Amino acid sequence: MKKLIYLDNAATTQVSEEVLNAMLPFFRQTYSNPSAVYSFAGEGKKAVDDARKQAAELIGAKTEEIYFTGGGSESDNWALKATAEAYSSKGKHIITSKIEHHAILHTCEYLEKHGFEITYLDVDEEGKISLNELEAAIRPDTILISIMMANNEIGTIEPITEIGRIAHENDVLFHTDAVQAYGHIPINVDDMNIDMLSASGHKFNGPKGIGILYIRKGVKIRSFIHGGAQERNRRAGTSNVPGIVGFGKAAQIAVETMKDRTEKEINIRDHLIERVLTEIPYVRLNGHRTDRLPNNVNFCFRFIEGESLLILLDQLGVCASSGSACTSGALDPSHVLLAIGLPHEIAHGSLRITLSEETTLKDIDFVADELKNIVERLRHMSPLYEDFVKNQK
Ligand SMILES: *Cc1c(COP(=O)(O)O)cnc(C)c1O
Prior knowledge:
Layout: E1 5-6, H1 17-23, H2 25-28, H3 42-57, E2 66-69, H4 72-86, E3 93-97, H5 102-113, E4 117-121, H6 131-137, E5 142-146, H7 160-169, E6 173-177, E7 196-200, E8 211-215, H8 241-279, E9 283-285, E10 296-301, H9 306-315, E11 318-319, H10 335-339, H11 344-347, E12 350-354, H12 361-380, H13 383-392
Parallel strand pairs: 1-11, 3-4, 3-5, 5-6, 6-7
Antiparallel strand pairs: 2-8, 7-8, 9-10, 10-12
The structure holds pyridoxal-5'-phosphate.
Pyridoxal-5'-phosphate binds next to helix 4.
């Protein structure tokens, strides 16, 4: 079998061996319900407490401000729907951006159907919101600003500290979808003025189906999943102990390895960007050149369909993506690429490559070499490209 080169780490990551080993005892040995009173439940309860501490430490939060959920989408839904409900007597206006993940955008559409008004901020050509536009959008009835920390498609990191400062100066709550950022870049909820933050285990070598919502002490928020008294009465359901333990372990490892890991990823990322931009014509890098996730690369190749690139890369054992995993299969170009101002035909030629700690320079050189060949082959079959070349002469 040919070697698999997995470069779709923004879609999901491999559970690390240490994380898996930390989780295993909680399936068959210490499988008790941590809410039970007998001492057999004690070990599970302690493991959940420890994981909550590890999850909090990564973002400088207090342990009791971390709530475990069923993943990033649930955390986003909870933050938006339940604060909207809790603060609706103050106002019904929410500000977000056009490049959010669908877990935010579709929740906003739902809220619009229920009497809330949403402002969707534009972004510039590098994917950043404008702080002036944000300030101008705030009204007396604005209750919440939700802007993602880093974009899952183009990797751009938003000016979170300033957004949070503007929110607080105007007495508005600030939520950030940090699913792509948590474990990948330094975060401090106090320094960054964050009131609520979503993260997801499977985006940083933890398991799928487990996430957190950080809720600053004092923020009013309704319960989202009703039932038992788990998670301080705010999120019912028997605790996913193995998942929680895995999340905590992954968070602990992410803190310990962040500096070295991201330095290595940035080196490889920049090497790939450099090679593709210099060796392949009619390519653009999407997203901010430096304020971007350490592991994210996103290009548009003119005269080429992203889907064709993916199929040919797949034949070489390379897993990449042409946008987000959630929209692949849809024919519409990515809403993020349209929001940064790309015309449809260029947005269709996008390729996202997201690295992991395991990605080597050798893998990336292989991908760059093959991309050169593939792009050339595809362009030679493209009538658009032929016309373009003719007109150049
Ligand atoms: C993956 C992702 C989500 C959804 O997280 P799940 O745990 O898969 O539900 C939300 N927001 C962003 C930015 C993401 O990348």
